[in-house]
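Q: Convert this sequence to structure tokens.
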Amino acid sequence: MTNSVGTDGFEPGFAWPAGIRAAACFTFDVDAESAILATDPASAGRRSVISHQAYGPRTGVPRLLRVLDRTGIKGTFFVPGYTAARWPGVIRSIRDAGHEIAHHGYLHESVAGLSPEAEEQVLLRGLAALDAVVGVRPSGWRAPMWEASWSSAGLLKRHGFRYDSSLMDADCPYLLEAGDLAALVELPIHWSLDDWEPYVYLPDLSGSGVIASPVEVIDRWAVELDQMVVEGGLFVLTNHPFVSGRPSRAAGLEALIRRATAIDGLWIATCDEVARWVETLPLKPIADERPILPPD
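A:
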């Protein structure tokens, strides 16, 4: 593909493929029980809580796969290793439907407070689980809880990853410096494009108890989608099967996807497809340095 005209305000050298105005990735974090167990291991004894999370692989994933099949797009599924081990048939069904499977930790553990050595062990454990269940070596990673560490980029590059999707400082993809002149593609995300915040409520665990209507949520996402196209950026939506796999929410998501497919010049792609394109561009890696606090 050849480059089209770049977008003002983006990194010098950035451009979408010819004829493309903007891009969209529909992504799914298949957290299942892991997201709760990582923060509150005692929840393993709360059967109703566990059933709330199990709705994702048991009911939500099959429904969302049907939505993606009807709309004719491919998604990216970020899968914790624990989910793959607990629900192997479900994760294989995602692979067999032709969707991308990416890395999302092992037990959905935040790596922000881990040493580089401990973070690497989590990364390797997740890789081993995905290989054992689906025979996949993922090219992408998303930090559980969107809490990357200052070591994450270098570790990912060392282990052959192409991209990360955990940071929030841009509207378009860019190259993130990963040490020793190496770089990783960054596909930015944002809390406003995550279904957890408006939909999830678990007593004592998450949410305020105010659960938004899908009509409101989809309208919010549609406004952002439309404006991201105007800006020429990358729209990355994050859904969780235990959240957006519920009937009215899945129907709303399908309507949003159909809206996206009707937009002229919008490239709907997997994260890996976007990252592969960005790798071809003459971009200078951005050094994302940890701030140094001034002395007292």
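The longest strand covers residues 22-29.
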